[in-house]
Amino acid sequence: MRRKIPSIEALQAFEAAARHQSFTRAAEELALTQSAVCKQIATLEEMLGIALFNRIKRRVSLSEAGQVYAREVREHLDRLERSTLSIMAHQGSGGVIELAAIPTFATRWLIPRLPGFYAEHPNITINITTRSDTFIFADTVFDASIHFGTGVWPGAHADHLFGEEMIPVCSPQLLARHPCPQPQDLVKLKLLHLSARHDAWHKWFAAAGASDLNAMVGPRYELFSMLVEAARAQMGVALVPRFLVQEEIRSGSLVTPFDIPMQSEMGYFLVYPESKQEAKVLQAFVSWLLEQAEQYRSQLQP
Which PANTHER family does the UniProt record give (predicted)? Predict the structure, then answer.
């Protein structure tokens, strides 16, 4: 039986029109006439038996069904494009790994180590997309994800990389201007917060034996990398994972006013679908990453 699949031309025309909310701009992008785009979309709607666009005078907008279909079509076209580029680039050898990763983890810990992986596996390419949430692998293009959490991920295998040790850091110049003999004195420097962890400072002060403090005041930032840069700019004191600021501490651009670490209840995991436990390309990356994580953990041991 022939598959019930629209032509790639119709799907491309629909995706472009949905993204631009305009048949004219879709035609310009695809180097087609507007009438050609309209015809492709009309053919697609006739096949589906449902209107994908609301047409009001000379303007168009996605219908409710069109919004859902546009999102799915875009994901499948992206996956098809990635697969095509992969086979063109590798000519049947090696492969490509689509990796979702936490932004700051990717930039501060993973990417600086990737040259070692490429030296061992020159025919494997790793494409990294930042993503922090849990998702269903079957609904995405991803082969694996580096995730911060408990390691529980439906339908996936999780390998523990390492835990998280949070420490306060600030600029040495800021600390010189505002000495802090006791942990509770850090509130004078302005506390810098990660938006997703509103109670992190409260927990750290409790671990440091300081209480009855207003640890909620201070600006909030979305990413740890923003916290690090704010601390470097003498805007306050940040509470960040130790592994993210090793280079800054080593160079002296940041200091730890109190080396009182707070162990997080969660950790960093590499997760991937159970169905890919035998995939050779992915397993090459898994083995290498677990080795890197083990080396890092050994560096933290006294």
Answer: GLYCINE CLEAVAGE SYSTEM TRANSCRIPTIONAL ACTIVATOR, HTH-TYPE TRANSCRIPTIONAL REGULATOR
